[in-house]
Amino acid sequence: MASAGTILPLKTKLGFGFGSVAYGIKDNGFATFLIFYYNQVIGLRADLAGLIIALALITDAFVDPLIGQLSDRTRSPLGRRHPWLYGAALPIVIFWLLLWHPPGGSEGMQLLYLFLIATAVRISFSAYEVPTLALLPELSSDYHDRTSIMRFRFLFGWGGGLAIMAIAYGVFLVASENQPVGLLNKQGYSDYAWFGAGVMLIAVLLSALATHRIIVAKYHATGTQPGSAEGLADIFGTFRYRPFMLLMLAGIFAFTNQWLTFALTPYLYSHVWGFSQADFTAFALLLFVSAFTAFLIVTPVSRRFGKARSASMMILIALVLGNLPYLLRQFGLFPQLGDASMIPLLFAFLISATAASISAMILTLSMIADVADQHTYDTKKQSEGLFASGMFLMQKVVNGVGILLTGIIISAIGLPEGAKPGEVGPEIVDNFVWIYVSLSVSLALLGAWAYTLFPLGEEDHEARQRGTAAKHV
Q: Among 79, 103, 192, 411, which residue is least crowded by beta carbons within 10 Å?
């Protein structure tokens, strides 16, 4: 473990952060395009496609603890984590390409294919992301520097995902002679998959190389490696650790809300706000402003209010700014479709809300390192991989729930297959808005409350550092 107050060099933060470009592309694809592609382009029912994707995510989620425990116990010349980082690169690329090139066949066969390949994609990423997040306590022992490191992960993750989304809207998913609606252009999704696969391969390998020297050297300098969770009893005991359980409670509500919004994005902006192809491209580019805003504000806010309180505040800000345009629209107080001020005003609300939401996510992952440190201090066992896997398990389960809810909502409101913007009945759109806002507000309020229960703060971190130093005197 690094010494107290160790700050990670900027170049290593940049390299570590760049690896999340791959994660951002994958998450953006699953959250924004996947259910839409299999429903509107391939022709599967939205509720069935949503159910299958949700099952794939939940299946993968329960593999994460195995990966986390195995990486905790890995002993190799490359250390505990880097064999996983390098080994995951090629499977990520192969399964990602297969996901966007489904074979023909019956609906049942296509659903089975979707389940198997989506699961394989997620497990491949787990083999990379779980060990990567587990590196955080070793990369820095400074309470606020951990938040700084995670903000680079989010900046690159969001930047990479949004850049590919903007390229998809502006270059790949465009109208053709055979398909006048860009979002329904099947060949565009194939091109999008190939381009994304190449970028992901580069990001994964460069990030592993960026952290290789410092982490592997620290591994060899340690000598005798500390213990880790060995059996099922140890694993379940680790997951029952109270600070971890409270952080997961908050994450369940916050991440479900975020994933529901992402999965509904093509539907909401097409049929509620009437986005054109240019609007989608501009929105994808402008969302990077959200990520950069979060990058700038999250550490100062955390220093002022603490991580847990700041996360709660950010969730409430996102709640108000993200839902206000929908409520104003329902009461006729927001500029109508066709009004020149509607899109800029909507962008201002949504980009601000997204910046607050991203800030809460950064703080959540930073708090995982604090949980892992406190657990090591209390139990004398290092289980960073297990805690990282628990975080991803939670995210994937609620991701699946968000996608499942999307499929249920789209089927429940009766949105026709291949529906074009402006041709959907107003009663369908109104029902859509009210269902979405009701769910979003409920989840956000529960999340904001749950963050206030997290027990570890900067004072606990400093006390832990003093106690650790005293033991080595």
A: 103
